[in-house]
Write a structure and sequence with these properties.
Layout (H helix, E strand, L loop, with lengths): L10 E4 L17 H14 L3 E4 L1 E2 L5 E2 L2 H14 L4 E4 L21 E5 L3 E2 L4 E2 L3 H13 L3 E6 L2 H13 L7 E6 L9 H15 L5 E5 L3 H11 L3 E4 L6 E3 L2 E2 L3 H14 L7 H8 L5 H4 L1
Parallel strand pairs: 1-2, 1-12, 2-5, 5-6, 6-9, 9-10, 10-11, 11-12
Antiparallel strand pairs: 3-4, 7-8, 13-14
Helix pairs in contact: 1-2, 1-7, 4-5, 6-7
């Protein structure tokens, strides 16, 4: 664990999500072209993972595989080497529609392995759907990122790994600050790290995401503790209480500044792929 404290830090940018709208912040990218442009700026600023959702023209979330295909193609063309992670989250679709884009064989996809409360509803991830999503990721060679909204989700990932439902060592992301779910609590955060290292090994990589004003808090905790960090307009549309973030790149730059403060290099796309056990992208190697 000590050796990783100064190792390269992977920055993930969640470019649009399902909830923020242009009324919340005009910089939120909605169309495919807007998302590609915003991701390219974030990539140039230091992000090496793009966490992706797609939207309809009225800004509502979508699970349309054709939209995901267009976004994937645009990112691979304009951000060669960047890791593309597609969301299988529950706001954009129901049941197996949530995994309809997995045959596109993105580098990664999000995988929530358990249910929890959200601000106004239950985020449902029933066991049969979790099993199906995991099997689709295995079938198409997609690496899951385990979204842990609760401690039990880390243990569920270990169970699935032991059963072979997750092929490679799980990459776990701690999500903190969602209303009615796990708050941003430092002792819990530290216990999450301890649990990941106990279950998956002392050098197991992990990531953290904070929602709203907790974004910069979790960025700081993750970078200073040897983990990897997620930022982006999906989770937070502000630089501070009174200032809207002008772009995803501006939020990435905040994490880069933290990496400088804690003497951690920002991971290149090559380093990020090596850390996560992903193949080098053919287009990027050409």
């Amino acid at each position: 664990m000590t050796q990783s404290l100064h190792g390269p830090c992977i920055i993930c940018v969640a470019i649009t999500g399902s909830l923020p709208r242009k009324a919340d912040n005009p910089a939120v990218p909605i169309s495919i072209s807007e998302q590609v442009e915003s991701a390219q700026q974030a990539f140039e600023a230091g992000a090496t993972i793009a966490h992706c959702h797609v939207r309809d023209e009225d800004e509502t979330p979508s699970s349309d595989p054709e939209k995901f295909a267009a976004l994937l193609e645009g990112l691979q063309r304009h951000c060669p080497g960047m890791i593309v992670q597609l969301s299988t989250g529950g706001r954009s679709g129901a049941g197996q529609a949530r995994g309809g884009m997995l045959p596109l064989r993105p580098d990664m996809a999000s995988l929530s392995v358990g249910s929890n409360n959200f601000p106004t509803r239950v985020y449902e991830n029933p066991p049969d759907l979790v099993d199906w999503l995991a099997s689709e990721m295995l079938a198409h060679g997609v690496k899951p990122e385990i979204e842990a909204f609760d401690l039990s989700h880390i243990f569920k990932a270990k169970e699935m790994w032991d059963k072979g439902q997750i092929q490679d060592r799980p990459y776990v992301q701690f999500v903190m600050g969602v209303k009615n779910a796990m708050p941003a609590d430092r002792e819990v955060f530290d216990y999450y790290i301890k649990t990941v290292h106990r279950l998956f090994g002392p050098d197991a990589p992990w990531c953290a995401a904070g929602i709203g004003p907790n974004q910069i808090v979790l960025n700081d905790w993750a970078v200073s503790s040897g983990g990897h960090a997620r930022t982006g307009l999906e989770d937070n549309v502000r630089l501070d209480k009174t200032t809207l973030a002008p772009s995803n790149a501006a939020l990435v730059q905040r994490v880069v500044a933290l990496c400088d403060r804690y003497e951690r290099p920002v991971a290149t796309w090559q380093q990020a792929r090596e850390i996560l056990g992903l193949e080098l992208a053919p287009a990027a190697m050409a």
